[in-house]
UniProtKB/TrEMBL annotation:
Lineage: Bacteria, Bacillati, Actinomycetota, Actinomycetes, Kitasatosporales
Coiled coil: none
Keyword terms, alphabetized: Membrane, Transmembrane, Transmembrane helix
Species name: Streptomyces levis
CDD domains: YdcF-like
One protein family per Pfam: DUF218
Signal peptide residue numbers: none
Domain of life: Bacteria
Transmembrane segments: 21-40
Protein name: ElyC/SanA/YdcF family protein
Residue intervals of the DUF218 domain: 57-173
């Protein structure tokens, strides 16, 4: 039985056809990079260091995976930054948002435990158990927890997307990008952001509901009341 042969795509033979092909490729590249350009432009004046960030009631820390039930090194760096901001009096409440879609995987509780071991009182930590992605976390912070302003904490390769999406969700935010070792995970995260930017742009335009919305929760208001 003869194997089917794959035909190579035919390139245009005329200069006009070749020019159109080049133009189409260039247009495709521009369109692919537009979401990233939007993300960088939107967040450009919203990035700060821990020393520069304005005092804000709430810090939001996004989940970044667990290792044997404990925060991964990348997540631990985010939590360290949040604990430092709390100790400096730059924030009063930390909203930890992450994945708890399975009984054996609980990012928010692991994040809470880490923060309490590093000096943040349990009463000033609020958990969002349905922060399945960045858009869900931002929308839920606004609609469920009533957050209007926040300091967002994540790695540099992710913080711009977080700021852009929280802005689209109605939260005035500043982003603190924490340091990270440029290992394989860092390079993977940076490459992933190029693809994630496209989804982020669609989320910002169409503003879908999160996977799980649920009723309003007073956790942030209560924590701020105790903090006052």
């Amino acid at each position: 039985m003869r194997r089917p042969t794959l035909r190579r795509p035919r390139l245009p033979r005329t200069r006009r056809g070749q020019r159109r092909l080049v133009q189409a490729v260039m247009a495709g590249c521009v369109l692919a990079l537009l979401p990233s350009a939007w993300m960088y432009t939107t967040a450009a004046d919203r990035l700060r260091t821990a020393d520069e960030v304005p005092r804000t009631d709430v810090a939001v820390v996004f989940g970044a995976g667990l290792w044997d039930g404990e925060p991964s090194p990348y997540l631990a760096h985010r939590l360290d930054a949040a604990a430092e901001l709390y100790r400096r009096g730059r924030v009063e409440v930390v909203l930890v948002t992450g994945d708890n879609s399975r009984e054996d995987y609980d990012e928010p509780d692991a994040m809470r435990g880490y923060l309490t071991r590093h000096g943040v009182p349990d009463g000033r930590i609020v958990s969002d158990y349905a922060g399945f992605d960045t858009w869900d976390s931002c929308v839920r912070a606004k609609k469920i927890f009533g957050v209007d302003e926040a300091v967002l904490i994540s790695q540099g390769f992710h913080i711009r997307r977080a700021v852009a999406l929280c802005g689209a969700a109605g939260i005035e935010s500043y982003g603190v990008g924490v340091d990270a070792v440029h290992d394989a995970t860092w390079y993977y995260g940076g490459a992933r952001e190029i693809l994630a930017a496209g989804k982020a742009a669609l989320d910002a335009v169409f503003r879908p509901d999160p996977r799980f919305l649920g009723p309003r929760e007073p956790g942030v208001e209560r924590a701020l009341g105790r903090a006052g």
